[in-house]
Amino acid sequence: MHSDLFASRNMAEPATAPGMTLQNSKSIKYAVHGECYARQGAMVAFRGDLQFERRSQGMGNFLKRAVTGEGLALMAVRGQGEAWFAHEAASCFIVDLTPGDSLTVNGRNVLCFDSSLSYEIKVLKGAGMTGGGLFNSQFSGQGKLGIVCEGEPIVIPVSPQAPVCVDTDAVVGWSSALQTSLHRSQSFGSMLRGGSGEAVQLRLDGEGFVIVRPSEAVPERKTGN
Q1: Based on CB atoms within 10 Å of each CB, which residue in 11, 18, 48, 166 is the most buried?
Q2: What pTM did the predictor assign?
Q3: What separation in angstroms does the CA of 186 have from each of 116, 134, 144?
């Protein structure tokens, strides 16, 4: 059979080493030799002897009811085999954390991660923010983290001389060493309508970077199973 569908770039070859790699720009392949963690519902295919469990049995006290925010639950993937993860054809990226690194990621952007990483759930609350707050997971340790983003992300350096304000619906993640606060400003649209509504941004101060997606609209959630 001949077709561009079977081009080498689309073929899922057997993994040569354990861990995660980009299958393509929209999916991550994880060669599991033990366990890893992923958002529930993100598995699109697997082969080998793998089990998918909603609850972890060996991650200490930071994954009791694995929720990273906005109802995003995690699952443990255990065994020997390969799994492919994706989320609504969003772009996928892999971040390699080393000891001393710490990255805060919006819960909706978490796709999968190594079991060697630890995290804690945090929420930044504020009036005017979608859902009443911004749920995040702060990852640290040594290992890889797979994230998803609608479109190509923008990485903006932050310095003490140049703090950055970002739309709370567009932020993907930021260096955990940065100080965060809420910045309120009246939107131009509200001014034109004669209203007194406030737009709320996330302000980041310090030394590091922030990742944003090229859209301020929250992706529409699918319903059903």
Answers
A1: 166
A2: 0.79
A3: 43, 20, 39
Domains in the chain, please, with CATH?
A: 18-212 (3.60.160.10)
Query: What does the block give as tokens for 44?
Result: 């699109």
Please state the three-class secondary structure of the chain as a single string: CCCHHHCHHHCCCCCCCCEEEEEECCEEEEEEEEEEEEECCCEEEEEEEEEEECCCCCCCCCCCCCECCCCCEEEEEEEEEEEEECCCCCEEEEEEECCCCEEEEEHHHEEEEECCCEEEEEEEECCCCHHHEEEEEEEECCEEEEEEECCCCEEEEEECCECEEEECCCEEEEECCCEEEEEEECCHHHHHHCCCCCEEEEEEECCEEEEECCCCCCCCCCCCC
Task: Please state, as a whole number, how many other Cβ atoms lie within 10 Å of the Cβ of residue 86.
Answer: 20
CA 190 and chain centroid, separation? 31
What angle is formed at CA 215 by the lines to CA 213 and CA 217, rounded to 5 degrees? 120
**Residue-by-residue pLDDT tens, the chain, 225 positions:** 555 655 555 666 676 678 999 999 999 999 999 999 999 999 999 999 999 998 543 444 344 344 444 446 789 999 999 999 999 999 999 999 999 999 999 888 999 999 999 888 777 765 455 555 677 889 999 999 999 999 999 999 999 999 999 988 899 999 999 999 887 765 555 545 544 444 778 999 999 999 999 876 655 544 443
What span, in angstroms and rounded, lies between the C-alpha atoms of 224 and 215? 25
